[in-house]
Specification:
With 437 residues, the chain is α/β, with parallel strands linked by helices. The chain is 46% helix and 11% strand. The chain is globular and about 80 Å long. The chain binds D-xylose and nickel (II) ion (NI) (2 copies). One nickel (II) ion (NI) binds next to loops.
Length: 437
C-alpha cells in the first residue's frame, strides 16, 4: 500500500508505557480533554517547506536529507511528484492541517506568468489530495525573501517594480489559499527591514508595507476570502533590522496603519527567544490586544543565537503555550504548525516521523498538564489575589479612571506606609513543578 515510507506504519497511540519509538505516548487524537478531543485542541499542522523542501544544509555544508522521491530538479514535474509523498506522510503521522509558501510547492518559471501557471498546476494536485485525505490548509503564504529580486525587501523594496512583483505573487498565493479552503494567510516579513540607514527611508518603507497589507485585505474582500490574516514577528533574521521584530512592534505597526481589525499574530517560539522574550511573554502581549491567532511550534537551541527551528520538546514551554490557548478559549482559525526541521544529522526519512512524534507528544502532554492547571486555578487565584486591592475602594477608582493625582495624594496622606506582599516566585515555581511531573 505505502509507496514512499514503506517501513513506517500509521503512527498509533500506545500510551505512556510504550517503548515503541514509532508510537505516541501522549497524543491520543480522540481523547476528550475539557470537553473536546485532543485533535481539536491542538490542531497540528505540518509545513511543506520543512517536511518536503528542507535538504538539511547549513552554512558549512550541503544538504544531507535522503529524499528518494525527489529528482533534485526545479521542474514542475518534480514539484508534482512531491505532493503525494507529503500526503502519505500526513496520513501516517495523523496531522490534519498543513501550510505552504508558494515557492515550496511550485517552482519559479522562466517568466512571472509561467511561475503562476506552475502554482496553479500544483494547487490542482493539492486540492485532489486534500479531498482524498481529508486534510485542510491552515494557512498559505508567499515566499518574498529567497529570490535575489527581494534582496532589498519586497513590500519595502526601494524599487516599485519589485513591489509589483511581490504584489502579483501575493495576489496568486491569496487566491490559491482561498481556493484550497485555507483558514488563514500569513505575512512573515522575510526581507522587510533594512541593513543600513545610510540608504534607507524608514518611514517611506513602512508606509509602503502598510499599503501592501491594505491591498491584500481589499483583495481578500474582492474574492470572498474570509480567512484570518496573520503577521509573524521575528527579529534580526535575515535583515539586520526587521520591522516586525516582536509582538509589540507588530501590534504598534498594525494600530498605526489601521490594520488591527484585519490581522492577528502568528507567534513562533524561536522568534520569541531571538527577540529576547519568552514565548509566554509574546503570547501575553498578543492576548492583551485580542490578537493571538496561531502558533509556529518549534524551539531554539539556547546555546546558539539563530533560528534553529528545532522540534519542540520542552514541556515547560509547551505548557506555557497550552495554558494560554485554553485561556483564550482554544484556537479558532489558528493551530500549532510545526515550523521545525530535523537536525542535519537526522537525514533519514524515518527521522521525519520521530521528530513529529516528539513534537506532538510534547504538546499533548502539555495540554493535559495545562487542563489540570486551568481546572484547579491555583495560579489564576494567586494572580487575581495579588491585584485584589484594585477590585474595590481606591484601586477601583484608579481602574475606572475616576482617580486623579489629587485624590490619590489625599488617600496616600491618610494611610500607613504600604507594606507590599511577597511575589512568591519560588513557591509558584515549585507549584509548577508539581504539575509537570
Ligand atoms: C522563518 C519563518 C517562516 C514563516 C513563514 O523564520 O518562521 O518559516 O513561518 O514564512
Ligand atoms: Ni514560522
Ligand atoms: Ni522561523
Amino acid at each position: 500500500m505505502s509507496e514512499f515510507f514503506p517501513d513506517i506504519p500509521v503512527i498509533a497511540y500506545e500510551g505512556p508505557e510504550s517503548k515503541n519509538p514509532l508510537a505516541f505516548r501522549h497524543y491520543n487524537a480522540d481523547e476528550i480533554i475539557l470537553g473536546k478531543p485532543m485533535r481539536e485542541h491542538l490542531k497540528f499542522a505540518a509545513p511543506y517547506w520543512h517536511v518536503m523542501r528542507n535538504e538539511l544544509g547549513d552554512p558549512f555544508g550541503v544538504g544531507t536529507a535522503l529524499m528518494p522521491w525527489d529528482d533534485g530538479s526545479d521542474s514542475l514535474q518534480n514539484a508534482l511528484n512531491r505532493v503525494p509523498v507529503f500526503f502519505e506522510f500526513l496520513k501516517k503521522i495523523g496531522i490534519e492541517y498543513y501550510c505552504w509558501h508558494d515557492r515550496d510547492i511550485s517552482p519559479e518559471g522562466s517568466s512571472l506568468a509561467e511561475t503562476h501557471e506552475n502554482m496553479l498546476a500544483v494547487c490542482d494536485a493539492l486540492e485532489v489530495q486534500q479531498k482524498a485525505h481529508d486534510v485542510r490548509l491552515l494557512w498559505g503564504t508567499a515566499c518574498l525573501f529567497s529570490h535575489p529580486r527581494y534582496s532589498q525587501g519586497a513590500a519595502t523594496s526601494p524599487d516599485a517594480n519589485v513591489f509589483s512583483y511581490a504584489a502579483s505573487q501575493v495576489k496568486i498565493a491569496l487566491e490559491q489559499t482561498h481556493r484550497l479552503g485555507g483558514t488563514g494567510y500569513t505575512f512573515w516579513g522575510g526581507r522587510e527591514g533594512y541593513s543600513t540607514l545610510l540608504n534607507t527611508d524608514m518611514k517611506r518603507e513602512l508606509d509602503h508595507l502598510a499599503a501592501f497589507l491594505h491591498m491584500a485585505v481589499e483583495h481578500a474582500k474582492a474574492i470572498g476570502f474570509t480567512g484570518q490574516f496573520y503577521i509573524e514577528p521575528k527579529p534580526r533574521e535575515p535583515s539586520t533590522h526587521q520591522y516586525d521584530s516582536d509582538a509589540a512592534a507588530c501590534l504598534n505597526f498594525l494600530r498605526e496603519y489601521n490594520l488591527l481589525d484585519h490581522f492577528k499574530l502568528n507567534l513562533e517560539t524561536n522568534h520569541a527567544t531571538l527577540a529576547n522574550h519568552t514565548m509566554a511573554h509574546e503570547m501575553d502581549v498578543a492576548l492583551g490586544a485580542g490578537a493571538l491567532g496561531s502558533i509556529d511550534a518549534n524551539q531554539g537551541d539556547p546555546l546558539l543565537g539563530w533560528d534553529t527551528d528545532q522540534f519542540p520538546t520542552d514541556i515547560y514551554m509547551a505548557t506555557d503555550v497550552m495554558t494560554r490557548i485554553l485561556k483564550m478559549g482554544g484556537f479558532t482559525t489558528g493551530g500549532l504548525n510545526f515550523d521545525a526541521k530535523r537536525r542535519r544529522e537526522s537525514h533519514e526519512p524515518e527521522d521525519l516521523f520521530h521528530a513529529h512524534i516528539g513534537g506532538m507528544d510534547t504538546f499533548a502532554r502539555a495540554l493535559k498538564i495545562a487542563a489540570k492547571i486551568t481546572e484547579e486555578g491555583q495560579f489564576d487565584d494567586f494572580v487575581s489575589n495579588r491585584y485584589a486591592s484594585y477590585d474595590s475602594g481606591i484601586g477601583a477608582s484608579i481602574e475606572s479612571g475616576v482617580a486623579s493625582l489629587d485624590s490619590l495624594h489625599e488617600h496616600a496622606l491618610g494611610i500607613e506606609a504600604p507594606r507590599i506582599a511577597s511575589g512568591r516566585q519560588e513557591m509558584l515555581e515549585n507549584l509548577r513543578n508539581d504539575y509537570i511531573r
